[in-house]
Amino acid sequence: MEEALKQQPADCIKVVLFGPESTGKTTLSRQLARHYNSVWVPEYAREYLQNKWNNERKTCEPEDLMPIAIGQMKLENELAQKTDSVLICDTDILETKVYSEAYYSGTCDPILEAYALKNSYDLYFLTYIDTPWEKDDLRDKPNERERMFKAFEDALIKYNRPYVLLKGGKEVRLKIAVEHIDNLLNHKK
C-alpha cells in the first residue's frame, strides 16, 4: 500500500490546484493544460465518490480516503510520464489529508499523512472562495467555505509549501497562474 502512495520521479514541473470545493480548480486545471499543450491530472475522488453515490447513495466515509489517495497517486504517476514540461494536478493527497481532518474529527490515516507530507510539488495555486458555490451530488459545505479555505491555507503554511493565492475571475486566475508557471519553466531550462 505504501508503494502506491509514493510519488515517482518525473522530468516535469508539477503544480497543484488546491482549495475547497467549488473554487474553480478543475476549470483552471483544464485551461492550464490547454495553454501549455500538456496534461492534467483530474481529481480521482470525484469519479470514485460519484460512482459510490450513484451505486449506493452514500457519501465519503473514512474508509474511502485511502483508495482515493492511492487512485490519485496512480493517476499522477502515470500522467507525469506523458510530459516533460508541466503537469497540472487538479489536487494532491495533501488535499485528501485536509479533508480527512476537516470531516473526521481532526484525524488522518498515518500512512496517508506521511506520503501527503513526503510528496513534493513545485508550486501550489490556492483557489479562493470568491467563485459561486455550485451544488452537485458531492459538494456539501456551502456555509463553511471560509472555514475550509482557512484549513487549506493553514496546511500550506504549516508544511511550508510554496503557494500563490488565486482570486478573481477565470481570466485573472489564468493570467496569474501562467505568469508563475512560465517563471518556473524559465528556471528549469
Automatic annotation (TrEMBL):
> Does the keyword field hold Repeat?
no
Transmembrane region positions? none
The secretion signal range is none
One Gene Ontology MF term:
ATP binding
InterPro entries xref list: NAD_biosynth-regulator, NadR/Ttd14_AAA_dom, P-loop_NTPase
Per UniProt, residues of the NadR/Ttd14 AAA domain are: 14-171
Q: Which UniProt keywords apply?
A: ATP-binding, Nucleotide-binding
Identify the SUPFAM superfamilies for this entry: P-loop containing nucleoside triphosphate hydrolases
Q: What is any Pfam family matched here?
A: AAA_28
On whether ATP-binding is a keyword of this UniProt record, the answer is yes
Q: Which domain of life is it from?
A: Bacteria
Q: What is this protein called?
A: ATP-binding protein
Question: Which organism was this protein described from?
Answer: Winogradskyella aquimaris
